UniProtKB/TrEMBL annotation:
Gene3D superfamilies: Atu1913-like (4.10.1210.10). It comes from the Bacteria. Residues 14-74 form the DUF1883 domain. Coiled coil: none annotated. InterPro entries: DUF1883, DUF1883-like_sf. Pfam families: DUF1883. This is DUF1883 domain-containing protein.
Amino acid sequence: MEHLYWDLGPCVGATSVEVELRGVPARVCLMDVEEYQAYLDGEEYEYHGGYWESSPTILDVPYDARWYLVVDGYDGRITATVTKLVD
């Protein structure tokens, strides 16, 4: 499964993550370790985020944990820049 991802490491709840998309619209998913593993395994998973056609997108970490950010483009090549705003 091709996707862009960032291991954000341990994040405190309310940390904000800014995602700048370039290329095509994409699904931006913020997942904890268990959900990211389910995503990789092709199992059912939950995420915080959604489908965005414009940038920047800002997501807030809902609780203290280790987090991954995944960017899935539906067609074409996509690039993204990710910045943790508050920790």
